[in-house]
Amino acid sequence: MDSTYTIIIADDHPLFRNALFQSVHMAISGANLLEADSLDALLALLAKEEEPDLLLLDLKMPGANGMSGLIQLRAEHPDLPIVVVSASEEPSVVTQVKSHGAFGFIPKSSDMRELVNALNQVLNGDPFFPEGSLTENAACNDLADKLATLTPQQYKVLGMLSDGLLNKQIAYELNVSEATIKAHMTAIFRKLGVKNRTQAVILLQQLEAES
What we know:
Layout: E1 6-10, H1 14-27, E2 32-36, H2 39-48, E3 54-57, H3 67-76, E4 82-86, H4 91-99, E5 104-107, H5 112-123, H6 138-147, H7 152-162, H8 167-174, H9 178-192, H10 197-209
């Protein structure tokens, strides 16, 4: 498959990133490959690059907090095809990935032939999810739907809440006023249907526990 596709590989493990790099080159000769080893590095790359053709995303990168990295990327780059490449292959994880708008899911255990086939299918415009990997989880999908209503900034606030930061620390990190953070908190609680920060953090942890 010859093309000048621009593909980003986002994974914090250099060895796996290198293996994926080689697999992509086998699938697509002449591809323009870019790499990122954290969510911050990936967001910076996306900010300066024209929209790439495909993002291969590891769920467990620094700054990604399980599914929240995927959700933030979907919110900020709604037209970017994202394929999750993960060692977590449970049906509940694959189902969440799909419900959060990923275009595909490739298990890290895939051999080279499976990986090449999956990449070709995705670049042809067809989603790829391993056969029999999806399950229906109403509670999980309900939580996913609620989290999907948060803005990218609200996600960052929720992630920092989960890390135990106080309002003034979050305000400092995001370079906004404490009043702005309180307004974000009110909106987050309303959207998630919770009454306080503890309940909000528990919801986020439930999502991460599945990933």
